[in-house]
Structures are given as structure tokens and as C-alpha cells.
Write a structure and sequence with these properties.
The protein is of the alpha+beta class. It is built from 10 helices and 11 strands. The strands form 4 sheets. Strands 8-7-6-9 form a 4-stranded antiparallel sheet. The chain has a 3-stranded antiparallel sheet with strand order 5-10-11. The chain has a two-stranded antiparallel sheet with strand order 1-2. Strand 1 and strand 2 form a beta hairpin. Helix 9 crosses helix 10. The longest helix has about 50 residues. It is elongated and about 110 Å long.
Amino acid sequence: MKIKEVCERTGLTRRAVRFYEEKGLVSPDIDAGNEYRDYSEADVRRLQLVARLRELRFSVDRIRRVLERPQEAEAVFDAHRRELADEHAECGTILAALEGLRLPSGGGPDALERAESVPLPPPPDLEPDFGRFEDLTREERARLSARSAERLGRMDRKRCQRRAALGAALAVLAVALAAAGLWFRSETEPVECLGILGADVVFSSVGWDEEAGAVAARFEADLTEPDGVERRAALCLPLPGAEAGDVLGKAILPGAAYAGFSYRIALPRRDARALGLLLPDGSLDIPAALDRMLTDEEFALRYASLTAVHSGWGGG
């Protein structure tokens, strides 16, 4: 079954199903020809169990352990119960502490006081060296002061060394993060192509498509293959956006014939590489991407869009 039906039966979103698939919690069959996913009844039951365990605040790792090693399920559940009990006890302690605090009127957070004050010793008694030098001679005090100054000097040098090491580590980290950012930006940067296709374009419908999650148009068009052979093709392409789609939708008359249509294909570089559509120079393999748009509706709904329809144009 398709992902749409899986979402309806499990209550999960498409993104959640994809996420659990990426984490290895479910493994649907994938058609090697078009990469369509076919979910079985066992997959649906597994996703329903995953959804229920997530509601009970189980982590993905613990869910994977339950699914892969059912014999350890009881141990996993016991660990989860203990963790929740600890959190409950900790929250109870915090609530009890909050009950013992009050904020005087007109005060800020620094004015919080205990409901029952505890008397403190006099300020001099809180000094670290209170009473330490009472019975020492002047020479002994001088020696202690010199050793203390030497010790403080060593501490300052070590502090400077730690700061220098930390600065060097932060500099290396900054360079690594910058490199990672450049790589991520490169991988997510879209590669795209634009073009005009078709003759005798006839639309059957324009409206919201649940699979695409956008306004989409279904139509047929005469296409000319690279070898010169013409064929009739059925396509479904999303419109550029809700607002633009409304405007374009008003200009499309189902059943009327148009001379051609404009399209746009755009996908992240990493997706193009995964689909085998990225050339060695980093650009999009346009003929392969166009063929994918014309033959794979899931690809078209995800990466392509209809940008305009044309009348009075004689191309094919």
C-alpha cells in the first residue's frame, strides 16, 4: 500500500513515516524501477506500535531494541518505568522547593527568600583564613605570603595555558564548522533546469493533490522523443505555490487545448546525486531529469512544477 493509506491508518504524518524508515524501524519494499514504496500489513502494525510507544515517551533507540530483540522488551520497559519514576520524584522535589519560596512584592528574581530563614554566622567567621594567622610571627607570615604569591603565579600561568589551549581548540572547531557549513550548503543547494515542452496540451483537472501536498494539474501532451518519435504522455505537475497556483489555475480550462507548457525541475544536490542525476561537474543531468519527470509521477510531484501554459506556440 502507498504512504497515503499508511498515514490514514496509523495517524502518522508522511514526515514521521519517512523518519521511522530512515531510523530502520520499518523497511517497506522499494521498486527498483521507480523507487515507489510498498508498505505491507506487517509494516502498518509495526508503525502503529512505534506510534504508541512514542506516545509513552520511549526513545527511538529503545523502540528499536524492543522490535529487534523482543526477549529484552520487559527489561526495556522496566528501565523506562524507573526513568519516569525518577523524573516524577525529581519534579516532586522541585515542586516542594517552590512551595517554600516566595517573592516579596516589588522584588525581582534576586529577592527570592526562604520561607523559614536560617541564621548565618557573623561575616568575619565566613572568611577562609579566619583565625589562621593569630599565633604566627611576622617572619612566618612573610614566608606564607611569599608561598601564597608563588602559588597564585603558578595558577595564573596554568590558567593562561588553558586559555591558549582552549582558544586553539575553538579556532580548530570554528574552521571545522565552517567547512561543514560549506559542505552542507553545497549539498542542499538546488540544481535545476527550465524548459518548454509539448503540443496539443489538454488539462483534465486542477486542484489540491494530497500526495503532493500542493495544488497540482493533471494533463496530457504530445511529446517528441530525441529520436523524433512522437508519443502521448500523461503528466501531473504541482503549480508554483498556492497564490501563483490559483492565478495559473484560473487561466487553465480543463478540456481546452494549449500549444505547450513551461516546467521547472529543482532538487537539492544531494538528492540529485542519490538519484543518479548529478553530472561530474556538479550540474544537473537535464535529459535524465526530464525523462524522470515524464515517467515518474512521484518524482514529478516532489521536484518539478508547472510554471506556465502557452497558446499559439508551435513547438513539440
